[in-house]
Amino acid sequence: MKVNETPIQVRYQETDMMGVVYHANYLVWFEIGRTSFIDSLGFKYAEIEKEGVVSPVIDASMSFKNPVRYGEEAAVKTWVKEYDGLRVTYGYEVVHNDGETAVTGETKHVIVKKDNFRPVSIRRSFPDWHEAYLQAMEKTS
Amino acid sequence: MKVNETPIQVRYQETDMMGVVYHANYLVWFEIGRTSFIDSLGFKYAEIEKEGVVSPVIDASMSFKNPVRYGEEAAVKTWVKEYDGLRVTYGYEVVHNDGETAVTGETKHVIVKKDNFRPVSIRRSFPDWHEAYLQAMEKTS
Amino acid sequence: MKVNETPIQVRYQETDMMGVVYHANYLVWFEIGRTSFIDSLGFKYAEIEKEGVVSPVIDASMSFKNPVRYGEEAAVKTWVKEYDGLRVTYGYEVVHNDGETAVTGETKHVIVKKDNFRPVSIRRSFPDWHEAYLQAMEKTS
Amino acid sequence: MKVNETPIQVRYQETDMMGVVYHANYLVWFEIGRTSFIDSLGFKYAEIEKEGVVSPVIDASMSFKNPVRYGEEAAVKTWVKEYDGLRVTYGYEVVHNDGETAVTGETKHVIVKKDNFRPVSIRRSFPDWHEAYLQAMEKTS
């Protein structure tokens, strides 16, 4: 299974008055991990949208273990957890500098037409991407 | 079971280039619903933090059914789904103007000391709040 | 001069580790004030965009006097400061509950076509809105 | 004059339904540029806060020339524009990949005690930082 790791520079704006990163921001970090993962497969999510489709999240879950603070160097690990040709579930782990887990989670996505949000089969409409997903699930990173 | 409903005015800033509310913002709307729910129990979350504790999220999950768009009037319904004296799980439903479900989800919280993030028992340290939670779970709204 | 006042409920998400509202969020509050001001003129910004135009900010300035904190009730006052048929400058004052000034600022906007960002004359393309701006500048609120 | 340049990876979350980066997010990019600039002087803003002070923005202005879009590679250039031992004004220029200006702006900061927001002299309390600012203004980068 291919795992992509992306460094995250904590923004002051991402903290809250608890003195730690506000919980919803980890979902944004998942987005950064996902974009980087797709890049590492040789695709650009921005290019995919130019074909008139978007890839909304349909389910998300997160488990918060240990908060990240401003000034720390964190990273997000991303991989494909499940994929059936139509829906893809990414897994994530945000880690502290010392490797300790900060947050784990997953997001499930579909591809839909931008104008009417009707589902599109990745297998049929994006065969290269389909192949890349299958390989990413098998590959030992 | 007590259910609190809070109107949400969609901010332009909350939309993304998909033309809908960016998914992580619904977690912020859950926060708004939770704050309003706590208000409706007669407490102020801001006052609780003045006692040196904070209430981080330890788990969250969301299911996205139907995106909310700018210009729409939405609302978030909030209730207490589970509570054991130590951890509280809130349930949420974001609804469109016509009552249709936009997003459902839940967040689980604990109370911890602000300076060291050590857990605090709600039952023992905040008995009034404890009682209010128990009543909120029983009450027919 | 017409001045519109909109209450603001501070979101926990809007705070930072300084314990106050993160400065960039006041620009979002200005957006809320502006939307509410346009509503008070009898228009809906969301409807205007359906005609294929958008209204980007071309200049903004802010002066931070006294930070707003979570749990406080704040409000944003909005008015039209300058208008020449093409460009409109809104003035803003964020006030604390006791009327003290928190932040002042202004944003200058144009109307452009959504597809190519070419400028559109408000005077010629949106005569009703043009009239409303002129009246808003004269009116004693 | 020392000018520091920091690459910016546009986040999908930073876009709005206009299809471009939401204007308030450039203030966050300015924060990223400022943090990187301070790093380049050999300091860490996160360490400075551990001494019980924070550095709020007291004035900000921005001029939006040309919006940045998702998928683009942008950068923020940062320098010290004015400094008098007490207040520092940073200048910023967000540039597109081809060097074209996207946004220009500046932010003015003071240093205050975290607990009471009383001003602190940089010259007297942070002499090393004071020296670094003076050099940054003279140096040809």
Set out the fold topology.
4 copies of one chain form a homotetramer.
Chain A (H helix, E strand, L loop, with lengths): L3 E6 L15 H16 L4 H5 L3 E2 L2 E8 L8 E11 L3 E9 L5 E13 L5 E2 L1 H4 L1 H12 L3
Antiparallel strand pairs in A: 1-4, 2-6, 3-6, 4-5, 5-6, 6-7
Q: In terms of per-residue confidence, which ranges of chain A show pLDDT below 50 for 5 or more consecutive residues?
A: none
What is the string of SSEs of chain A from the N terminus onward?
EHHEEEEEEHH
Share of β-strand residues of chain A: 35-45%
Oligomer state equals homotetramer
Content-based structural category of chain A: alpha+beta
Description:
Four copies of one chain form a homotetramer. Chain A has 141 residues and is an alpha+beta fold. Chain A has a single domain, classed as Thiol Ester Dehydrase, Chain A (Roll). The first copy, chain A, has four helices and seven strands; from the N terminus they run βααββββββαα. Chain A has helices at 25-40, 45-49, 122-125, 127-138; strands at 4-9, 53-54, 57-64, 73-83, 87-95, 101-113, 119-120. In chain A, strands 1, 2, 3, 4, 5, 6 and 7 form a seven-stranded antiparallel β-sheet that branches. The longest helix of chain A has 16 residues, at 25-40. Chain A is globular and about 45 Å long. Chain A starts with a strand and ends with a helix. The model of chain A has no long low-confidence stretch (mean pLDDT 95). β3 of chain C pairs antiparallel with β3 of chain D.
